[in-house]
Design brief:
Blueprint lengths: L6 E5 L8 E2 L4 E2 L6 E3 L10 E3 L6
Antiparallel strand pairs: 1-3, 2-3, 4-5
């Protein structure tokens, strides 16, 4: 993981994540995995960034 890399295709405001591009509100990963914690998601709050790693 390279937090100095800014992937401007993936916006992110979760600066508690190890993969957050600290200089801007973007992710530093090449790609992310999005999942859900619900059986039948109906709102954006039902989805999760499965690539999240706490700092």
């Amino acid at each position: 993981m390279n937090s100095s890399f800014v992937n401007e295709s993936i916006r992110c405001t979760v600066d508690q994540c190890k993969n957050h591009a600290q200089s801007k509100n973007y992710c530093s990963l090449d790609s992310i995995t999005v999942g859900t914690h619900e059986n039948s998601p109906t709102q954006d709050q039902c989805t999760d960034c499965k690539s999240f790693q706490v700092k």
